[in-house]
Design goal:
4-stranded antiparallel beta sheet, 19 strands, about 400 residues, single chain, 6-stranded mixed beta sheet
Length: about 400
């Protein structure tokens, strides 16, 4: 009988431990799931789009972007980091042959490496002929232990010309997962998925009490004007949410929130309050076509090169388990894809196997022997035998 009770006790402990582990988020991501890549950690996005397909979202490479009423404004520093490296490669601010307000703002270097811990990013610019692509790959592997997912680099790494590249990955898990709700939040007349906590009694709901302690109210004026922090296991990173009226630009709005945080008086979240935050889960790709112009630089190798690719990807997820950010930016002069387009003079040869000389040669230097566009489109293509029968 004692043996049976001991077994029941052990089973009870196992069940409790399982429940505890299910609600507790991994405390040290670098020690859990070592085999997961950054893409696997972020998981598949609910919304995956080219940014230009979205009518209500502005993706910007800098924070001087004006906030348009009713629109989202999204920024991540990876493109700025890549631009800064391009400036260093050119020996100063990058100028484009045709004026570009975007390039001028980027050359102010509004964000830099100083804003991020060294272990979370890679930023490099150089020439492919000098081994810059290999240098980027080595830095990624060294910093992220082979877990990196450099999708844009894998697709677009050049074999010649310059490359300017930025990569950033952050995982900010909560120690204790919040609750997930499907019908608790209405955002601008639409029900949205959300996470948070509801009123609870600490002695009855220990899990809610623990997750509630992860909320810090940094500044509160009223129900439509407040700033909070959600504490994660990454103590030197801060996850801030601010329900406020925006100023003219994203930068001005961010600065105002940061000033309020400095002067505010943080208070703890109370047991009798509710918190509901919309879930964010997207993966966007932005093409900065305004920057696709000729570079003017004191660096003779860089001067005159065209920016043919100027892309940024931003993968972001914020839910009851924490936040994950993966972003990549790339600028290159020429692509590595092997297109075979005979749009300039070319040679045609006919040669027998093992022969020392061809038996036919044609150098095509103009269009005189070429069919004009549309001339070959007939209702029925005739074979050689049909033509000469």
């Amino acid at each position: 009988m004692k043996s049976f009770n001991s077994i029941r006790f052990i089973v009870f402990i196992i069940i409790i431990a399982g429940i505890y582990g299910a609600y507790r988020v991994s405390s040290k991501p670098q020690e859990h799931g070592m085999s997961l890549t950054h893409n696997q950690t972020a998981g598949p996005a609910y919304l995956k789009k080219n940014a230009d397909e979205l009518k209500g979202t502005i993706v910007t490479p800098h924070m001087e972007q004006k906030i348009v009423p009713g629109k989202n404004v999204l920024w991540c520093s990876t493109f700025q980091l890549a631009w800064n490296e391009l400036c260093d490669l050119g020996g100063g601010s990058v100028k484009l042959k045709l004026d570009s307000s975007m390039a001028d703002i980027l050359s102010k270097r509004g964000a830099s490496k100083a804003d991020i811990d060294d272990a979370s990013y890679v930023a490099v610019a150089g020439f492919a002929e000098d081994g810059s692509v290999e240098k980027i790959r080595q830095e990624l592997k060294t910093k992220f232990n082979g877990q990196e997912s450099p999708d844009l680099l894998n697709r677009l790494a050049p074999k010649s010309g310059f490359i300017a590249y930025g990569y950033l990955f952050k995982s900010l898990p909560f120690e204790w997962a919040f609750d997930r709700f499907s019908d608790k939040l209405t955002f601008q007349d639409k029900k949205v998925e959300c996470f948070g906590v509801e009123q609870y009694l600490p002695e009855d709901e220990p899990r809610e009490a623990r997750s509630g302690k992860q909320i810090s109210i940094l500044d509160y004026k009223d129900q439509d004007d407040f700033i909070i922090e959600l504490k994660t296991l990454q103590k030197k990173d801060h996850l801030i949410l601010a329900k406020i009226k925006p100023l003219e630009t994203l930068d001005q709005t961010v600065r105002s929130v940061m000033n309020r945080m400095k002067n505010g008086r943080p208070v703890d979240f109370t047991d009798s309050a509710d918190m509901y935050i919309p879930v964010l889960d997207f993966d966007l790709l932005k093409d900065y076509s305004e920057l696709k112009r000729i570079i003017q630089s004191s660096n003779k190798r860089l001067n005159g090169q065209p920016i043919e690719v100027a892309l940024q990807s931003i993968r972001f997820r914020l839910d009851e388990t924490g936040a994950v950010l993966k972003s990549e930016a790339i600028m290159v002069a020429c692509l590595s894809r092997t297109n075979l387009v005979f749009d300039k003079p070319f040679l045609v040869l006919l040669q027998r196997d093992s022969a020392k000389n061809p038996y036919f040669a044609l150098w095509v230097g103009n269009t005189e022997l070429l069919l004009p566009g549309g001339a070959g489109k007939t209702p029925k293509q005739r074979s050689f035998s049909e033509t000469y029968k």
